[in-house]
Each structure stands twice: as C-alpha cells, then as structure tokens.
Amino acid sequence: MESSKFTNDDQWEERSRIFGSSPKGVLFKSLPDFFNEYIHHWQLKKILSEIAPDSGKINIIDIGCGYGRISLPILEKFPEADITGIDVSKNYVELFQKNTGKNAFVGFAEDFSLQSGHYDYIICITVLMYIDKDKIENTISNFLRHLKKGGKILLIEPLQSGTYFQTCFGALNLVNKFKKTAASNTGGNSFQYHFLQSLIHKSGGKIIREYRLPATTLFFLAIYIFTNIFTSGGRLLFNLISRCDEYLKSTKLPSIYIFSVVEK
C-alpha cells in the first residue's frame, strides 16, 4: 500500500526494491494477482470518476505515489495534467519519475509544503493508516491548504469493519506467519468509520460522497480461496462481485476500504 511517514521507512524502501513496479508492492502482497488487479481497478475507477471529463490543465498531488500506479492511467486519460508525486521511499520516487516523466520527491503527508491553494486534486490512497492518529487531523488540514477553491481530496483508507473479513478473522495472519514473505511487514492501521469522519470534519474538510466495497468484503474468504484454485474463472467472479459492490456502494455495510471525496 502507498506509504507516508512512519517508524518503518526502511521496510517500505525494502518492499519497493523487491516488488518494483508491481501492484504487490503497494497493495496486498499475499493476494493472488487477479485479486489485486480487481482492487486496483476499483480504486482507479473511483478516482477517475471524480476528475471532470473535460479537464484540461489540472494540478494534482499524488501522496504515497509509489511507482505511479494511479498517476500513470490518469496521465493516459488526461495528458495535460501536471502531477507531483510524494513518497517516503526514495526508490518509489525514482520509479515514479521514470514511469510517468513527472516530478516527485521524498516527503511526508504530515508536513510537505508546496504551493498553497494551487491544486485541483489531492490523491491519498492508504496513507493516513500509517500516520500517528494524533497527527491525522493536521495532516488533512495540510491537504486542504494546498487545494484551490472547488478542489477535492480523493481519499481511500481501510475501515476496521472490514478488517476481520480481510484477514478471514485472523486466519490469513496466522497462515502468513508460517510463510516466507518477500518483503518486510510495513504494518498500518484501520479506522473506525466515525473516527475517520470526525477527523475529516475537525480538519475543516467536508465529505461530499462516500463509497464502499461491501460484497468484496463479506465474501473475501470465498474470493481468496476461489482465485487461488480457479484462476481461469476469476474474471467472471469479479464481474459478479463488482456489480454487487456497485449496487451496495452507498450502504453502511462492512468494507475493507472507504472512498471519500472531501472538499474545503
């Protein structure tokens, strides 16, 4: 997952060097590729849906930019976009610059400083989860300072309600302890819904839309097993799950992620 300032910066640097420009480096390293691809497309679809289709010259900050997983397809659709990447990993910053041709620097969500009131969109995917909870309110305030009037923070973070399903009620964590993993444990927290909502409001932000992944969450174990055994049937399964998620996206059901659109 994309990262920010936290105590295990070295683990993120190691992970970036092991996985390079692979989704496993920034999503779930223990999930089948097909599953990670599905999660990636859900996140990307939500991000792209918030960028006006007739956008010309737009300014974007991609916080926890990784190797450019999100910025690359944005640039393909909006070639005039000016995107600046920020990541805690020097290697990811270099990969981002190489892959996108755009500027990036090593920095932290809590205290980066660019031109105030200049940016149309700030993309923040699974970054706050690595920040000390007593610093998150100021972090979001920092985002808002960089937004121009009418700009949006596009925020995706894990919800605690979905954690039990994501880990199969602890079973996957137990299994992973006995498996040799390729990268260090980069940790991270999940949020109670009302806690995250409260922090956004206290920071001066206003949530204008929210979406969830209820079907993916509730059937996480079944999907995990199916995609490990029947890889050829994954596309059909995810097509069905995707339709269910779209139908249930605005409910308050458990979700591994919540996508929030935030304005000043």
If you had to describe this structure to a student in words, what would you say it looks like?
Helix 3 links the parallel strand 1 and strand 2. The N terminus is likely disordered. The longest helix is centred in the N-terminal third of the chain and has 17 residues. Helix content is 42%, strand content 18%. The protein is an alpha/beta fold and 264 residues long. The protein has one domain: Vaccinia Virus protein VP39 (Rossmann fold, 3-Layer(aba) Sandwich). It has a 7-stranded mixed beta sheet, with helices on both faces.
Concise overview:
The protein is α/β, with parallel strands linked by helices and 264 residues long. It has eleven helices and seven strands.
Question: Which key features would you list for this structure?
Answer:
264 residues; alpha/beta; 42% helix; seven-stranded mixed sheet; disordered N terminus; single chain; Rossmann fold
